[in-house]
Amino acid sequence: MASVISVENLHKTYGAFVAVDDVSFEVEEGEIFGLLGPNGAGKTTSVECAQGLRVPDEGNIRVLGLDPRTQASQLRRLIGSQLQESALPGRLRVWEALNLFASLVPGGPAWREVMERWSLTDKASASYSSLSGGQRQRLLVALAVVNEPRVVFLDEMTTGLDPAARRATWRLIEAIRDGGATLVLVTHFMDEAEQLCDRLAIVDGGRVVATGSPQSLIAEHGGELLIRFSTDRPDVSFLEDIEWVDTVSRRGPQVAVAGHGPVLALVGAELVRHGIVPTDLHMQQATLEDVFLRLTGRGLED
Known about the structure:
CATH architecture of the domain at 3-78 and 149-219: 3-Layer(aba) Sandwich
Oligomer: single chain
Number of strands: 13
Largest sheet: 6 strands, mixed
Order of helices and strands: EEEHEHEHHHEHEHEEHEEEHEH
């Protein structure tokens, strides 16, 4: 796929504080790309530089072929953004906000269609202050996409939402991607990154420590896989001959097989070949949180 965002060797400091320290990543067209890390890791500063909202000290950035430092006005016509501290005046009505944002785009997009698409028509005359958390998020997303952007930046957009509103917001994010846009999602929620992101960069201390799909990162950095099942068959030593199996241990009827790679499929196939079909066969696998802890030496909330 074509790269729509390229960030190379990005540096940004504020006095003696190093916010971004040599960050590099690429975002491919049509994907949801996540920046995952704790607060203060440099995620927001990186995406603000990519949008032309901040000027980096060093590094090269291209978004849709444009340099945010020198071509910010052209770039902003092609991107949508929901910032970390997004808010609107309390008395501003839903239709007024959409009309205002639509008027800033040459040609004036059909904001009424956007309002209907994001299920805000029944709240058209409601003030921003009267909306629920989930409704506010829907409005902020609608404002971010009212100009039909090719790239959308969403920064910590589910912080403070209850579980139901978070799930609803996830569906909004997927709908934006399904509409043809590329998304950059900034988050410090592991489950959000694992659920939504095609690929992600784990950021800590202003640096990218790993990049890949959630599953590839877990496979590469998550350590061994552990398969458990029970059987009355006394001999399961044949499992030790499977290429991807590291160890086989047993306590009574309970068997534990440690391995890596496609070990689950191979163990399952070999058990069936030997006439063993356990009903409790399952695998324990590391999570993104385990990967983050292994790569950084600390938890996401530390």
